[in-house]
Design goal:
Length: 365
């Protein structure tokens, strides 16, 4: 996997074409150009997270970052400010509240297991009128939350796309820090299989809780953390509705049919609707008709993508495995359960449900 870059998006008149990190053989619906300094409000423009351009790429140079903030809505905060959360951090440090409206923070965009000092594993936060909703919690999420200015204690609602470790590694640490930090309100974790996961997290906490209760007089974390299993459905299903957001989930294709026949776990994509904007987070997935339906009319579509060079390597590896008589190799499974640039182009929203301009589509490699 490679670092993510930020490019400004400009709408093209060509409809129904692809969003691509590399654009090999594809005409892009969104034309990437080098990012310009943000000097004024750009309420209905977007930024696209893309792989750094290779030799001969038409994109030019892009600024590499480890996390980015995408401001949505019509506030005076310019889109694209706050790389690595600086704008939000500065606002909090100055004593003022975070800007009102809907904001999307890509806290971590690294796929697969492993520790990258420049890029955290998968996590995103939708901050709506200063209230954060966290989606996935891979390794590095806690540091990114602190760096963004959101912090750890305000996280009370968390959804998981699936239970691979690169999407869950920081959950136990987050819950631990919330408890030892004195969080007084419950934290709810939703997703397929999360009830058992939170129960396991509480088991992990038992020893430190007993020690701290005996020595410091603390209360136990029981009654603070709750896991809620979300059904994996073939049609979009609303899983949360409060005064700020509605969250809808649908099963995607990150788990192949052969894997699903052996394990009970499923993988989900999420849509966040607020008064201002709608956002879809694909999570890990291959091409998915369910995801297309979930993303219909959405303002921002954030989708994973495998860099084309890796697609080429995996394709060659899968062919070699097949020739050797292997039917379930890593290369074969990854190709089936992740998105290529062509897959993202086929899934990118093509219809609008309102007259608002589309903000953008993001393909994250």
């Amino acid at each position: 996997m490679v670092p993510v870059s930020v490019c400004k998006l400009r709408r093209r008149t060509v409809a129904g074409e692809a969003v691509s990190a590399h654009g090999r053989g594809l005409t892009r619906l969104w034309q990437a150009v080098p990012k310009e300094p943000a000097t004024s409000s750009r309420a209905n423009q977007g930024y696209c997270a893309m792989s750094p351009p290779g030799a001969g790429s038409p994109y030019g140079s892009c600024q590499t970052i480890s996390a980015c903030t995408i401001w949505l809505g019509s506030s005076t905060w310019p889109l694209g400010t706050g790389l690595q959360g600086r704008a939000l951090t500065q606002t909090v440090a100055a004593g003022g509240p975070p800007p009102a409206g809907t904001h999307l923070l890509l806290l971590g965009t690294r796929g697969a297991s492993g520790v990258d000092l420049a890029r955290g594993q998968t996590a995103s936060a939708a901050v709506v009128d200063s209230v954060p909703y966290l989606f996935d919690c891979g390794y590095g999420t806690m540091r990114a939350l602190v760096a963004s200015g959101v912090g750890l204690q305000p996280i009370s609602t968390l959804f998981l796309s699936h239970l691979h470790d690169d999407h869950t590694s920081d959950i136990v640490a987050l819950l631990t820090e919330q408890w030892t930090g004195g969080k007084a309100t419950p934290t709810n974790v939703g997703g397929d299989g999360t009830a058992a996961l939170v129960k396991g997290a509480l088991s992990f906490l038992r020893a430190t809780a007993e020690i701290r209760k005996a020595g410091e007089g603390r209360t136990t974390p029981q009654g603070m953390f709750f896991g809620h299993d979300v059904a994996a459905t073939a049609t979009p299903t609303k899983v949360l509705k409060d005064e700020r957001v509605a969250v809808t989930a649908v099963e995607n294709t990150h788990f192949s049919e052969s894997v699903k026949a052996m394990v009970p776990y499923r993988s989900l994509s999420y849509r966040i609707d607020t008064a201002e904007r709608s956002i879809v987070l694909s999570g890990d997935t291959g091409y998915s008709k369910n995801l297309i339906e979930l993303a219909r009319g959405v303002d921002v579509f954030v989708c994973e993508i495998i860099a084309q060079g890796l697609v080429d390597q995996l394709t060659a590896g899968a062919a070699a495995d097949a020739a050797a008589g292997k039917s379930n190799s890593m290369a074969q499974e990854v190709l089936k359960t992740h998105s290529s640039s062509a897959d993202v182009g086929r899934m990118a929203p093509r219809q609008r449900s309102s007259a608002r301009p589309v903000v953008g589509a993001l393909a994250i490699s």
